[in-house]
Amino acid sequence: MTGQTINFKTLADDFSNLALYHKQLNSFGLGDVTQLSYWTTLRDKEENTHFQAPYYPLLYVVPSQVTNNLRYKTWEFNTVVADIGEVDLTNQVDTVSDTLQILQDVISQFRLSVTPYLGNYNDKYYLDDSVVCTPFLEKRDDLLNGWNGLLKIKTMTFLDRCAAAYNTFTGSPIQHLEGINFKTFHDDFELLANYHKQLNSFGFGSMDDFTYWTESRDKEVNTHFQAPYYPLLYVVPGEVEQNFGFMNYSFTIIVSDIIERDLSNQTDVLSDTNQILDDIIGQFRLSVTDSLGNFNNEYYLDDAITCTPFLEKYDDLLGGWTAELNIEVKIPLNRCDAAFDS
C-alpha cells in the first residue's frame, strides 16, 4: 500500500489489526468516547456482529483532528487501553501497569515495525512526536483503569485533484469577469456540490439552519426546501478581512452523512466524508485547468487546514467532518468603481 492510498478506513483497519494480533488485547472499538464501553467491533479476536460489551483488556480509538498540508496529513487519535479494576482495588496496580505496557506496544508498532513479519507499519505511517500517556482510574460504567495517549500519525497522502470524485468541469469552469464577491463564492461552493459524484445536497447559511436549509437536493434546486439527501455539503460564512491588494474570506465547511442506528457504518461514514472534504480542499488548491474547474486561478488556499470529526450529532444522527477554510482572493481596492455619485 502506498501513502497515497491511505485513508481513514485503512487507519481504522490497521488499529483493529493491532488488537487482533496483540496477545493480551481481547477487544477493539473505534468511535466517540461516550461509546467506549459498549461499541465494540472486535471481541475475543472475532468480529462482534451483535455489538456485545467488550472483553477486557480493550483497545479503543477516538478519532480527533486531521490537519491537511500540501504534501502530507497528520491524523490525531486518542488511543485508550483499558481493563476492569476490582471493586476492592486489589488489582489496580497490575491493571495500570499492564495497560501502560500494551499502549507502549501500540506506539512502538507505528514507530518500529519495519518488516512484513512485524506488520510494516513504519512503511506507511510516521509517528515522530512524543506521546504523552495519561492514566485514569475507576472510570466509565465498568470501573475501568488504563491509559490514554494522543497519537499524531503523519501520512504522505498529499491532495490529488486528478483522483477526486468530480465530473468533468469542461464547459463550466468558473468565470468571474466582473470579479469575485460573496455571491460568487456561494455559487462556486454550490458548483462543487453539483459536480461531485458523491454529494447529494448543498446548503449555505447559519449553523442554526444546518440540515434544514437545503438549496440543492439530488443535483436540483430544492424549491420546496425539503430535507437533504445525504451526503450533504453545508457552508457557514465567517469573517472577511480586507487588506490592500487582497481579501481573506473564511468559511466553515461541513460534510456529513447519516449513521445507522446500530452504528454499523460509523467508520465508513467518517472515511467517506473525510475523502469528500479532501476533494473540496484539493479543488481550491489544485484545479488548474478548465476540465478541473480552474478554481486555483481565482482562489488561494495555502494554509494548513484542520478538520474535526463529529459522530451521532444533530437531528439526523449524523457523522462527518468540519473544516475552517481561509481563502484569499486578489481584489485590489478601487475607488473608481465604488458605488458613489461624484
Description:
The protein has helices at residues 8-21, 92-112, 182-195, 266-286, and strands at residues 27-30, 42-43, 46-47, 58-68, 73-84, 133-139, 144-155, 201-204, 216-217, 220-221, 232-242, 247-258, 305-313, 318-329. The radius of gyration is 23 Å and the shape is elongated. Strands 1, 2, 3, 4, 5, 6, 7, 8, 9, 10, 11, 12, 13 and 14 form a 14-stranded mixed β-sheet that branches. The N and C termini lie far apart (66 Å). The longest helix has 21 residues, at 92-112. By secondary structure, the chain is an alpha+beta fold. The model has no long low-confidence stretch (mean pLDDT 88).
Mean pLDDT: 88
Helix content: 10-25%
How many strands in all? Answer: 14
Radius of gyration: 23 Å
Report the uncertain regions.
Answer: none
Question: What is the structure about, briefly put?
Answer:
By secondary structure, the chain is of the alpha+beta class. The chain has helices spanning 8-21, 92-112, 182-195, 266-286, and strands at residues 27-30, 42-43, 46-47, 58-68, 73-84, 133-139, 144-155, 201-204, 216-217, 220-221, 232-242, 247-258, 305-313, 318-329.
Name the descriptors.
single chain, 342 residues, alpha+beta, 14-stranded mixed sheet, 4 helices, 14 strands, 20% helix, elongated
